[in-house]
Design goal:
Oligomer: single chain
Helix content: 55-70%
Number of strands: 8
Order of helices and strands: EHHHHEHHEEHHEHEHEHHHHEHH
Structural class: alpha/beta
Strand order of the largest sheet: 4-3-2-5-6-7
Largest sheet: 6 strands, mixed
Number of helices: 16
Strand content: 5-15%
Distance between the termini: 48 Å
Mean pLDDT: 84
């Protein structure tokens, strides 16, 4: 006889596992984004998430075996512990890697921005916020890593602007080395901060070369200036030029809000720098974003930002990940009835999580964290509720283990079979 069951303890524990997975995932995104390939980053993100959800669900059923029965706890719990890592971290993680490879592939439009304009603050306040000149070292390191099909321009600014490097194609190592030397040998810091003048000069570099389309601007400043935001940013928005901004939050609060607004208005992203030595990693992230290296849990920017195709692909990928997460729980408990329930529930929860990510992600860091937390909570909780809708046999138990135990409990039959075989051979 089948029953509709619900383990409230498993619902709570699964939520706890989802929150733990979210927190670990945020550390992975923060520390490894830009350092490893996106497919590996997303594989680790969802692999560890599935592990913690599976671990907490297993602990819940060990405490109160409401779904799988006391017989499972007494006889088959050891098998469930052995299946935990292969069924969660490995299976879900590998699937997430493959789905990220698909999501990161370019089926529409260009693969990313071909032109990058760097606007670097050389005002007097930078002597305090960047005493070791990490900004220009980070910019030089970024140039060395850029692909040969890219073009770059560098503009420094304080009260005035200086075109340190006009827009040039990085077609050879010699060109890269020349740009790097200009960055490392730039003049010192002095004067005030004219952000609007820097943006205008950067745009002029693109328009003069007729390269406005498919471009990205990186603006780094630690100061504040009053500017007419709608008028200044109108041409950037018209040509869909993303402006990513980098600011020093502990220097000027007004400047931070300004940079956040510039990034949000143009579809870019704001990056906060607590210490100047973080700039190399941040510039690496920005370069990856300029190449439209999309991932499943971050905002999609550039030419595919409003793509219906990639929106559907993200939601479908989360649906598959959710279904596999549910299946992994069925494999852990070795119960085909629970596998069916959790897989269907996982597909529904993945669908909901995918919709939340697709509609909620933005260029605001804390808001994106909140969106990923909501998606992770939905993914963890909804699948555990589906035992209410899909009946589970009252006896519980695990089908594979029952068959194996039955075989072990009939040694006479096995022995008789061996004797018959021996007699036949004779």
């Amino acid at each position: 006889m089948s029953q509709r069951k619900l383990s409230l303890l498993m619902v709570v524990c699964s939520l706890v596992g989802g929150v733990i997975g979210f927190l670990v995932g945020e550390v992975i995104l923060d520390r490894l984004a830009g350092e490893i390939a996106q497919w590996l980053l997303i594989g680790l993100y969802f692999g560890q998430y599935a592990f913690f959800v599976g671990l907490m669900c297993l602990i819940a059923e060990m405490i109160s075996p409401r779904l799988n029965g006391t017989g499972w706890k007494q006889r088959y719990a050891g098998f469930s512990w052995k299946m935990l890592v292969p069924s969660t971290f490995v299976m879900v993680g590998v699937a997430a890697m493959l789905l990220q490879l698909l999501y990161g592939s370019s089926f529409q439009a260009p693969s990313g921005a071909n032109n990058l304009v760097m606007l670097l603050d050389t005002s007097g306040s930078m002597r305090q916020s960047d005493p070791d000149n990490q900004l220009f070292k980070a910019a030089a390191d970024m140039v060395q890593k850029m692909d040969s099909d890219m073009k770059i321009a560098v503009v420094t600014f304080n009260d005035e602007t200086n075109v340190l490097q006009p827009l040039v194609a990085l077609s050879s190592q010699a060109v890269k080395d020349d740009v790097v030397q200009k960055l490392l040998n730039h003049s010192g810091t002095d004067g005030g901060t004219r952000i609007e003048l820097a943006l205008q000069t950067g745009l002029e570099q693109l328009t003069a070369a007729q390269q406005v389309e498919n471009s990205t601007v990186v603006l780094m400043s630690d100061g504040y200036t009053s500017l007419d935001i709608p008028a200044t940013l109108a041409p950037f928005k018209q040509h869909q030029v993303l402006v990513h901004t980098v600011g020093m939050r502990n220097i000027d609060e007004q400047g931070t809000r300004l940079l956040e607004q510039i990034a949000a208005e143009t579809g870019g992203r704001y990056f906060n720098v607590e210490h100047a030595n973080e700039m190399t990693g941040i510039f690496g992230q920005i370069y990856d974003m300029s190449r439209q290296d999309r991932n499943l849990v971050s905002e999609r920017t550039g030419a595919t930002a409003d793509s219906t195709f990639y929106a559907i692909l993200r939601v479908a990928s989360l649906l598959v990940i959710g279904a596999l997460l549910g299946l992994s729980l069925g494999l852990i408990f070795d119960n085909r009835h629970l596998a069916k329930s959790f897989t269907i529930g996982g597909a529904v929860s993945g669908l909901l999580a995918g919709i939340v990510l697709e509609t909620g992600l933005s260029s605001i860091y804390l808001l994106d964290m909140a969106v990923r937390l909501i998606a992770g909570a939905l993914l963890a909780v909804v699948l555990t509720l589906f035992t209410v809708f899909i009946p589970v046999p009252a006896s519980g138990g695990s089908s594979f283990q029952k068959r194996r135990l039955a075989a072990q409990q009939s040694p006479r039959a096995l022995g008789a079979g061996n004797e018959t075989s021996k007699r036949f051979d004779l």
